[in-house]
Amino acid sequence: MDATKLKNQIKKFEEHLIVDRGLSRTTVEGYCRSLSIALRRMRKFVPQSEDIRQFILWMHEKKYSYGHIVNTSLAVEHYARFKGMTVKLGRPRKPKRIIQNVLSESEISRLIQGTRNAREKAIICLLVYSGVRNSELCNIQRKDVDLGANQLKILSGKNKKDRVVNISSECTRVLIEYLSAFRRRPEDFLFATLEKENQLSTADLRKIVRVLARRAKIGRRVFPHLLRHSLATNLLNRGASLIMIKEQLGHAFIDSTMIYVTSMPFRARSEYDFFKPAYM
Fold this sequence. Notes:
Blueprint: H1 3-19, H2 25-42, H3 49-61, H4 66-82, H5 105-113, H6 118-130, H7 134-139, E1 145-146, E2 151-154, E3 163-166, H8 169-181, H9 202-215, H10 224-237, H11 242-249, H12 254-262, H13 265-275
Antiparallel strand pairs: 1-2, 2-3
Helix pairs in contact: 1-2, 2-4, 3-4, 5-6, 6-8, 6-10, 11-12
């Protein structure tokens, strides 16, 4: 398959999703990645219905994750519509997820202690105290940080929603130290690459977290979204309400927050023992 032609097809599809479908940049990037993989696998720029059916069947046989299959199906449906075809694919049943391998407070502390400069410390502290998504942190500008109120404005987050999230006073002090060493204008991104001052990418952020986890000898895979799960779990362990956690994480529905409760049976046991009636 010609790589240049594939790149041009993906570029036109990207423009279609942004202009004609009105999808967010993050969603578009995900669909384009999934479609690029699918077209290379099918070896056709305009696959027919049977080609698509066989490709999705192959994904099921290879036991791809629920999210991967659904995102690829959506990307292919959008692409088929872009090419003037009608393709409607079924969706697998969504599995009941359990959040696993979250980091304890002591492990988070080791991540912070493993930083070697103000920039690394500010990045990791903002992730672990705010629980913002990977892409949300990359898009934060200096003017979005309210150091006096210990808060951040997250603009055009997931589903293009704006929200305000809290950070701790300890995190604010780290940010002040960072901004003293790395001057940022109000319209500048809060974090940028060191050499060219470009906006920090999600890949850059994953690499920073991976390096810090290696230094801290965590011993398992650590990535930015795991720090988001860890904040929710540690807040819940300390008695925070589901509503507070929902607002902090920017969940659209409380069901998304409830997953942390179902993933922590020991928390339910502890809460029952505390609140059980005194019959005897």
